[in-house]
Amino acid sequence: MQLNAVVLATVVLCFLSQFAVGIRTGPVRISNGGRNGFHKLGPFMEAPEYRNGKECVNRENFVSSSYNDPSLVHIAMTLDSEYLRGSIAAVQSVLRHASCPENVFFHFIAAEFDSASPRVLSQLVRSTFPSLNFKVYIFREDTVINLISSSIRQALENPLNYARNYLGDILDRSVDRVIYLDSDVIVVDDITKLWNTSLTGTRVIGAPEYCHANFTQYFTSGFWSDPVLPGLISGRIRTPCYFNTGVMVMDMVRWREGNYREKLEQWMQLQKKKRIYDLGSLPPFLLVFAGNVEAIDHRWNQHGLGGDNIRGSCRSLHPGPVSLLHWSGKGKPWVRLDEKRACPLDHLWEPYDLFKHKIHRAKDQSLLGFASLSELTDDSSFL
Question: Which residues form the signal peptide (predicted)?
């Protein structure tokens, strides 16, 4: 029996290692030396200590590393050298506005061969957020590299963009529900409200939907002219609508049971044989889930603030309330701010930026009037 248990444990470990390996996040000594030293990525200011209010569930009966604590809010994000500044700002925003910040647990997925090692990235997060509950998982890029097709923008071909496809394999099995967030977001509301989204029926994911968008534009003429492929999505109970994969509530139990990683990979394999889309990691999600997504209020993904995928031009907010700002598109706020070509909404990202070596920017007095989100809304659509 002992031998069988050892064999079984070995098989499970080998299977999981195909996708990721975890880095524990206890106290660490931060080193300034080495080719991949974190000084090349930072330094970042240490964030304030965010504490739970009296209304929060007491976590004293659970060890800090326990994922079974029902009071935890699990958030998954990618972590890499290029978008690190955005990730740090996103974490800061979540904690600042959370009603129970000590109950938020972050699952960071870092690429195995990033220019900064996952261990260095982990140390940098710990030095910035000393009391943060988090774990870093090393994503094996060779898992997906042969399935990636060329996209309209090279950044969309980064293997780490596809890590969300593998969350069911990467995250610990005890994590049965997770919020996935892109690294270019700012949360300006209590993340618990998003966490409490109900995924009704058999729905696996929830996200804001945009049914007025032209769904056909996300796929090539070769897809729509195929005698079989369009029928695979047209027969669904609800009309398929566009949704952005940068903000999703995901039921990981249903994800694993439904083998959704394999379903996404099947579409990617077909794409390698016959080009059916041009836009990176988004279309496979649309093909698998569109028409069966739990619709979440648009306030939880005011996306498109980075402009389109070519020019990255300035955009305005959708009308209505805002709980999350998302700089999807080519333009990123930290880049535009440093280059002194910021868009008006980029100044809403700036207060969450913990990067120490900020370039001193002359404050454009004409922008100071945009003091509230409500003043920045208009009827523009920026899908």
Answer: 1-22
Contact 213, 350 (CB under 8 A): no
Domain boundaries, the chain: 68-302
**Could you give the 3-state DSSP secondary structure of residue 238?**
coil
| Residue 366 DSSP label | G
Neighbours of 227 (CB within 10 A): 6
Strand order across the 20-23 sheet: 20-23, 133-139, 104-111, 73-79, 177-181, 247-251, 205-207, 294-295
| Homologous superfamily of 68-302 | Spore Coat Polysaccharide Biosynthesis Protein SpsA; Chain A (3.90.550.10)
Other beta carbons less than 10 A from residue 151's beta carbon: 19
Q: Are 353 and 89 in contact (CB under 8 A)?
A: yes
Q: Cβ(67)–Cβ(75) under 8 Å?
A: no
Alpha helices in the chain (DSSP H): 2-16, 84-97, 118-128, 167-170, 191-195, 221-224, 231-234, 252-257, 260-273, 282-289, 333-338, 346-349
> What's the chain's length in residues?
383
Tokens standing for 213?
A: 């968008």
What angle in degrees, to the nearest 10, is found between the helix axes of 260-273 and 282-289? Answer: 120
Q: Tell me the whole-structure pTM to 2 decimals.
A: 0.84
Q: Where are the alpha helices (DSSP H) in 60-217?
A: 84-97, 118-128, 167-170, 191-195
Question: Could you read off the pLDDT of 286-339 as tens digits, one per residue?
Answer: 999 999 999 999 999 999 999 876 776 899 988 899 999 999 988 999 999 999
Omega of the bond leading into 43 within 30 degrees of 0 (cis): yes
Contacts with 258 (C-beta within 8 Å, 6 or more apart), sequence order: 204
Strand bridging mode 133-139 / 104-111: parallel
Torsion of CA 130, 250, 248, 198, to 10 degrees: -110
Say whether pLDDT at 361 is over 90.
no
DSSP 78: E
Rounded CA gap, 42 and 33, in Å? 13
For 256-273, the pLDDT digits (tens) are 999 999 999 999 999 999
Q: Compute CA 307 distance to the chain's CA centroid, rounded to the nearest angstrom.
A: 18
84 Cβ neighbours under 8 A, 6+ residues apart: 41, 116, 121, 124, 183
Q: Which of 297, 298, 320 is nearest to 378 (CA)?
A: 320
Instruction: Tell me the two tokens of residue 317.
Output: 């907010």
What is the chain's mean pLDDT, rounded?
Answer: 83
